[in-house]
Amino acid sequence: MIEQPMQNPHLWKASISAIRAFESTLIALQKCKIAYEFISVHKWRKMFLPGYTKTMSAAEAKTIGLQIGIRMFPELKDRFEAHGDPDGLLIAEYCKRIHLGTTSANIENVTTGSNAHDTI
Question: Which of 19, 23, 28, 91 ranks highest by number of CB atoms within 10 Å?
Fold first, then answer.
């Protein structure tokens, strides 16, 4: 799965850079004949971030995402804090749950602070 790039007219330069990187990634995947599907940031965030809505600020979503990532993968806390967010692993976890299935109890563990990846 590939997250669709940011498209924000207020952040024009960043949006163009994101779209160009996205295009390059798609070209490489197509040339290598690697299958892919698109995912919206809103879909995977809705699974992991309690109370997430499309109107939540990006900064708030990043802060909550970092807390969730640390709860799910405490052994990677230093890396998440150095990098700024665990989005890549949260997307991978979303893919794993969508394609392999999960229970709502496992998702609930993420938002309540249990180490959810141990329950899958």
Answer: 91
Full pLDDT tens readout for the chain, 120 residues? 888 777 777 788 888 888 899 999 999 999 999 998 888 888 889 998 888 888 888 889 889 999 999 999 999 999 998 988 899 999 999 999 988 876 444 444 444 444 444 433
Is there a single domain that holds both residue 12 and residue 58? no
Report the predicted TM-score, pTM, of the whole model to 2 decimal places.
0.69
Contact 75, 116 (CB under 8 A): no
Please indicate, yes or no, whether residues 85 and 48 belong to a single structural domain of this protein.
yes
Q: Cβ neighbours of residue 87 under 8 Å, at least 6 residues apart?
A: 3, 65
Nearest Cα to Cα of residue 51 among 37, 39, 73, 67: 67
